[in-house]
Amino acid sequence: MYVAVKGGERAIDNAHAWLAAERRGDPSVPELSVTQIREQLKLAVNRVMAEGSLYDPDLAALAIKQARGDLIEAVFLIRAYRTTLPRFGASQPISTDAMAVDRRVSATFKDLPGGQILGPTFDYTHRLLDFKLAAEGESPTAHTAPADSAPVPHVTEFLNRDGLIETAEPSDTAPPDLTREPMELPADRALRLQAITRGDEGFILSMAYSTQRGYGRTHAFVGELRIGTVSVSMDIPELGFPIEIGEIEVTECETVNQFKGSKTEPPQFTRGYGLVFGQSERKAIAMSLVDRALRWKELGEDSIGAPAQDEEFVLMHCDNIQATGFLEHIKLPHYVDFQSELELVRRLRAEAMAAQEAAE
């Protein structure tokens, strides 16, 4: 049975107006600007850009404002907008070797060439509320940028000199584009990394944490974590050479993992890799752990059946937009479906009661 909904359009319009009023909040409080969100909620902006697959801090800040701070809703807005943009071509692979580093740490080498650069981090804060931040008009403390902005080598290169870590063979094969082609399983590493880098940070973090607790063969060290800006270049056919079209901030993490060897590979260290838009080091580290866990088959390891080793489980459930859509659709009208379920349960109950009475 279907009951027509009367006044639905008017109710939706009123809901939109109410939402706009709730978004604005108390009119006596100054409105939050997109510039303020972009500059002062940078980590939230970075997450929206990463999971939305669109590097634009202004649009990400606007999406956060429109979504009332709901970052998944903001990601949804960014992805929807992204589909309207024209595509002019593909950029060249970025070179993180030439990164202008703001933060660079290694948990494997204390004295590494180029030095450890702590950068802006919560790692050494006391996690106590700072009530001075509640005071308006506070002047920020000036920071000192690294004195030497010259390119710094990757830590894993030092292990490679002794042949102690696997070598990633370069490939000229164009990777599939997850934003233009549907996911197909089994997926190669390039496609897996695309899915993980735009996957929900909380989900990827949980998967990574599970590998550290024993649900996966991942005992990792952070070989290097670096954050900084890299240039983006694009080939221009009319010119015959690439030109730089801009710069983006990225976080890169390479983990070094123990590997006892297999029938096809000798004992050595193996790699896990993560690369994310903006300063998103928690996501980059988690991504590298999940990447390594998913590589068990190509390394000739035996799976222990851990969730983080299950390619389908990870890749088909990490996308927060797909998850949100399927989860939240159940709050929309399902009157006809429920009526049929209701009638079925009533009939089954009647049959069960009749059988019970006949048995007595």
Q: What general outline do the C-alpha atoms trace? A: globular
Strand pairing plus helix content: what structural class? alpha+beta
Query: Average pLDDT across residues?
Result: 87
Give the strand tally: 4
User: What separation lies between the terminal Cα atoms?
Assistant: 36 Å
Q: Can you write the helix and strand succession as a string?
A: HHHHHEHHHEEEHHHH
- Strand proportion, as a percent range, falls in 5-15%
Strand arrangement across the biggest beta sheet? 1-2-3-4
In helices, the fraction of residues equals 25-40%
Q: Biggest sheet, in brief?
A: 4 strands, antiparallel
Low-confidence stretches at least 5 residues in length (pLDDT < 50)? none
Please give the count of helices. Answer: 12
Radius of gyration: 26 Å
Structural domains: how many: 2
Characterization of this structure:
- The chain is an alpha+beta fold and 360 residues long.
- It has two domains: 10-82, no CATH class; 96-119 and 148-169 and 181-323, no CATH class.
- Helices cover 38% and strands 13% of the residues.
- It has twelve helices and four strands.
- It has helices spanning 8-24, 34-40, 42-52, 57-66, 71-82, 156-161, 189-197, 201-212, 281-294, 311-315, 320-328, 335-359; strands at 100-105, 220-236, 241-257, 270-277.
- A four-stranded antiparallel beta sheet has the order 1-2-3-4.
- α2 (34-40) crosses α4, α3 (42-52) packs across α4 (57-66) and α4 packs across α5.
